[in-house]
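Thread amino acids onto this structure.
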């Protein structure tokens, strides 16, 4: 067995791992590199392997840094089987079409031909096959894969690859941050031999759930008192749905007054509709709250703005108001139009509830840059800047260590590979795994190959 790291090595994005078991070639994720212009240039490089030789592509979840290069993989010759959970199968075509819009804009801006075309998106999605949690899928006579709940976003999975009924290789994908408002907890996998674990927050500890709700209440209340606008850049899958649930809990509990909230993201609106079709994946508490309103996410204070004209009409509504829009790192989407309008206002607030990759517009705002360039214009940043780590869909250092400790139960983990984190975060987690759990941990480099 050989494990090749072709993305997600010493960086958060671009997840792409090739596991070779004899003649079987299994790709895990095929995501976009995101953040800096340098990292995004990597998307246009040829794959380090021959896509036509890949037998299976296993998808952990639907974020662009895990799926965004799938149509390019198809364009370059991949004709194998794409395996993912049923919710991911439903969301994947919608997410890829949305990613295509950003790909076309980015290619034009960077002077490249498009990374792929709509025909590649449509053809690639024809290769998708659905799987269910806990039900083994046979890849060949000696290799089986099992998808486990990761509690990250709807349908996200931990991959357990079993070779010859003996060796167990675990890919965490992105581990969640339970207890989640919507999803069930993480399905821990024991008896692992090798663990490939993410490390976005490998050196940090989140606030607890009660603390994060208190912070959200405070941020909303202070913005209302100033008569300002609260902007929340958010990812279309999971973060927005969780946030809507949290706002409803605060309003129902009279902890904040009812003010207009706008969901200004066509993709998020579509995803929210899809979420309603997979309510069996929600936890009992979330089901109870959503049914109380007679339908999923049908809150009386919430307005969907699917069209451009709907979006523009938000400007006509007097503050205070809350605008939730993509993208989560302000790298595109409708949030950048609201940022151009409202970042200069001292009474306004921008609240980050997800990870901001190094080099992204969101990271630059969060770092306190006094001016940022958006769509060619210099925009002064005078509004208040807030962040809540507890709303991250990623496990923090304690959660990541817990996963490795659980995986170590049984025969014991031989080695842990730490990926999908900036180098400092990955190093911090690797050192902690080695010192606290006495398990060898290693941070691989881009294009590195390890014999297992």
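Threaded sequence (452 positions):
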């Amino acid at each position: 067995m050989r494990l090749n790291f072709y993305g997600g090595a010493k960086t958060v994005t671009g997840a792409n791992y090739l596991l070779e078991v004899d003649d079987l070639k299994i790709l895990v994720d095929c995501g976009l590199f995101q953040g800096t212009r340098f990292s995004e240039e990597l998307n246009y490089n040829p794959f380090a392997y021959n896509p036509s030789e890949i037998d299976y592509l296993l998808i952990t979840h639907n974020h662009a840094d895990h799926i965004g290069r799938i149509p390019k993989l198809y364009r370059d010759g991949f004709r194998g089987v794409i395996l993912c959970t049923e919710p991911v199968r439903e969301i994947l075509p919608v997410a890829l079409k949305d990613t295509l819009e950003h790909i076309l804009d980015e290619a034009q801006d960077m002077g490249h031909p498009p990374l792929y075309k709509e025909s590649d998106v449509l053809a690639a999605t024809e290769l998708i096959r659905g799987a269910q949690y806990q039900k083994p899928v046979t890849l060949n006579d000696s290799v089986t894969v099992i998808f486990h709940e990761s509690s990250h976003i709807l349908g996200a999975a931990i991959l357990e690859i079993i070779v010859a009924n003996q060796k167990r290789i675990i890919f965490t994908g992105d581990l969640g941050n339970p207890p989640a408002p919507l999803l069930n907890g993480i399905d821990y996998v024991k008896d692992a031999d090798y663990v490939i674990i993410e490390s976005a927050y490998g050196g940090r500890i989140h606030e607890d759930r009660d603390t994060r709700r208190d912070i959200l209440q405070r941020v909303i209340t202070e913005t209302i008192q100033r008569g300002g606008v609260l902007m929340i850049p958010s990812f279309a899958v999971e973060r927005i749905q969780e946030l809507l649930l949290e706002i409803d809990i605060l309003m129902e509990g009279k902890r904040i007054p009812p003010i207009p909230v706008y969901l200004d993201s066509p993709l998020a609106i579509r995803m929210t509709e899809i979420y309603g079709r997979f309510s069996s994946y929600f936890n009992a508490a979330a089901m109870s709250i959503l049914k109380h309103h007679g339908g999923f996410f049908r809150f009386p204070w919430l307005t969907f703005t699917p069209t451009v004209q709907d979006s523009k009409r938000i400007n006509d509504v007097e503050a205070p108001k809350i605008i939730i829009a993509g993208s989560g790192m302000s790298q595109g989407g409708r949030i950048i139009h609201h940022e151009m309008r409202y970042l200069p206002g001292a009474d306004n607030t921008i609240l980050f509830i997800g990870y901001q990759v190094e080099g992204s517009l969101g990271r630059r705002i969060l770092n306190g840059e006094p001016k940022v360039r958006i769509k060619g214009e210099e925009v002064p940043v005078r509004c208040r800047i807030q962040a809540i780590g507890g709303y991250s869909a990623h496990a923090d250092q304690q959660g990541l260590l817990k996963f490795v400790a659980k995986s170590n139960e049984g025969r014991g983990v031989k080695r842990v590979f730490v990926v999908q984190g900036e180098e400092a975060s990955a190093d911090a987690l690797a050192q902690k795994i080695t010192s606290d759990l006495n398990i060898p941990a290693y941070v691989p480099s881009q294009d590195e190959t390890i014999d297992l």
